[in-house]
Amino acid sequence: MTENEEENPGEQDDGPSTPTPLSERLRFGEFELNPISGELRDASGTIVPMPPQPIKVLSLLARRAGELVTREEIRNEVWGDETFVDFDKGLNFCILQIRNALGDDAKSPSYIETLPRRGYRLIAPVPSTPDPGSVPVETKQLRWAGIMIAIAFIVISVIALFVRRQPAASPPVEINERVMVAVLPFKNFGANQADLYFSDGVTEEITMHLGSIHPERLGVVARTSAFAYRETDRDIREIARELGVHYVLEGSVRRGDGETRRITAQLIDARDGSHLWAKTWDYRDEDPLATQTAIAMQVAATFRLEVLAERRPYQPVAAAHDAYLRGKQLLNDGGTAQIQASIEHFDRAIAEDPLFALPFVARVDALHLLQMRDRLTPKDARDQIAQAVSRSMKLAPDTSGALVARSILDFWYDWNFEDAMSDIETAIQINPSDAGARHDRGWLLIALGRFDEGIDEMRLAQRLDPVSPRANIDVAWAMIYAGRFDLAIEEARRVQGRFPEFYEVQHCFQTAWAGLGNEEASFEALHSWAVARDRLEDLAILDPSNPARSLQRYRAWRLQQILARTESLSDPLDLARGYASVGGTERALEALEKALEYGSPGLVLMRVDPSLAPIRHEDRFEAVAARVGI
């Protein structure tokens, strides 16, 4: 079982595995840490998601509770002798993740105390657990008496909780943990199915707003995973287990006479299926974001959360908001034609309300996707993206969306890695639930050779977007770019088991097996993909009786296809990869130098791109890498 095949976050393991002895578990405050399995559980037994590196750091601090653990000791214990480009930033990020998981405050800590420039101390007490064999009989009897009292208390509490939840209006919920919420797609109950863009947009705006209300106490599952449950009659509790959340917000949008709309929302405790509240709001065109904000505030009030983001969202002109939502629906559909059409809607939104920042941010996403699909040259994309970024930063400089947009410009087009990292980290501080921002930071870290951090960040994105095939497979791709091919194969197998129709996993297998020098397995993965996709041209070349020869012929054929491209712009970097795959070192280097002149965004990953490995030792390769700045 790979790390990401662990129990769904928020779900206790009822399986037959042997429990860890109590003496090996570390308890502090309201948490219990199992350093063997790497699981952190809260007082209710719910698993609190945390990447492996922060778990190791927390285990060390918990084992030495009350003591100063120096930064150097942490480095030696957790990272050991492995190469680590920027340990200080890595440790700082680990501590930030630990504090987020524990709901701790750096300024007024209850768990982790910082001793500036020295290290950290776990200040919550960790009670020791004696060896069961050494406990006197009287102590054991007292323990059993205590257990019986505890069971009675739990039964009474459950009965009281049941009785308390009978009224229609529930009081605020007391929480001592970081709450995870999923916002399921609001249903469109209007007669016109063309209004689906509006109900989807409302859902996405509520999700975005919730993510920034109180980041340390409230997390939100990514839109991609939540929208996988659009058409389903499955039990809410089952959905919540798959998404790793405690609560589910669902609702509907109903169009009345004329342009009036009524939005209903209800918050459900997914642990027992009880409804905490249900309310209805009348949507008003003159205040298009007021309802979404009110729903988010209602959720925050339920958990007694202090709203950290006091600034009221900008209220755009109704026509601009409508055009923006229509564009977002097309952008989220993901087809090239739809992405191109989305830009027209964003432009109309901007024309209707030039002070509305979100269309500028969305325009950046659309333009970047079109460039990645060779529908725009890097220069054309860069110029338009720079204009949109400039406007969004002037209008909304303290929003995660605008900062992520600027990080795209910095990273992929201007090759300014320091500024890109600063922007993306600030964006994540504003909204730690932004799976896309974590995904982007993961690739930035991989490009910089900070592989452990990059893979951990990809896993965080995966946990925030657990049923997205893309969020899952990119963990395997990150491992491939880190040169950890065996781990990538394990990860790809897990993804294949969960998403059997997601054929990109075969490309992961093909690349990873090739990286390990196993051409037969690499061929098998490629052949399986061609069969599944009914790629007759590919199958005509792929001869199972001679895998090595077939792979050579296939790579040469793919190179010819790149050379013959006419339907889209041709990125010289693709040529460099193609020539490198067939041993054409000189032409590969020529193409790489042309890619530099072209401004190919993919050059940011050239040092870790496995398809460029055959020419990585060349001086001309190093010269290009130096120009890119990596």
What does this structure look like?
It is a single chain. The longest helix has 28 residues. Helix 9 packs parallel to helix 11, helix 13 packs antiparallel against helix 14 and helix 15 packs antiparallel against helix 16. A hairpin with a 4-residue loop joins strand 11 and strand 12. The protein starts with 25 loop residues before the first strand and ends with a helix. The protein is built from 25 helices and 12 strands. Strands 7, 8, 9, 10, 11 and 12 form a 6-stranded mixed β-sheet that branches. Helix content is 53%, strand content 9%. The N terminus is likely disordered. Among the domains are: 120 residues, Arc Repressor Mutant, subunit A (Orthogonal Bundle); 33 residues; 127 residues, Rossmann fold (3-Layer(aba) Sandwich), CATH 3.40.50.
